[in-house]
Structure formats: C-alpha cells, structure tokens
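Dear support,

I submitted the protein below through the web form. The confirmation email said the job was done, but the results page showed an empty box. After a refresh the structure appeared. I'm attaching both so you can tell me whether what I see now is the final result or a partial one.
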Amino acid sequence: MAVIDEGRDAAETAVGDVLPEDLVTVDADAGVYDLFELFSEQGVRRVPVVEDGDLAGIVSLSDLVVLLGMELQHLATAVRSSAPAYERPGPDYYRG
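What the results page shows now:
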C-alpha cells in the first residue's frame, strides 16, 4: 500500500524500500507460545519467519488459532479414548 500511497511505480520499487525499519520478525525455531506473546505485545496479525537471515515464510494469528483448535481436538480424542466405558456418556446424553 505504501507504493500506491506514495505514487511509486510498483514494477520499479524494491520491497526493502517500503518495509518499516522496525519490522517485527520471528525466528523459524520460535515456539507457538512465543508467537502468541509476540502477536499480543506487538499488536500484529502476521509476522515474517526468518531463518539464517532469509525469509522462510509468514505466520499469521489465524494459522495459530487453527493449530490450537487442532491440538484441542487431538486432546479431546485422547481423553475420550482413554476414559473407561462406564465414564463415557451414553448416546442419549448428546440428544439433550
């Protein structure tokens, strides 16, 4: 958007010319909780992932929300499968 806002030619403008000097990045080996903390503290929704000084990808807040949802599903499945049959609710339990 900076290219358009400043009337620059997109074909002639290098990405480095429009990046903020205080660009928030994260190392490729950062943990999920570190990312949640970074998103919260910096107020950003997407962060470039850097490995050995090179761009390795981009991670977004919605990527983390999807990952967290998948982890919760796996945890629920594990809990259900390990619970004895007498502790599991019967089929009528879910019908309300």
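Response: this is the final, complete result; the empty box was a page-load delay. The chain has a mean pLDDT of 84.
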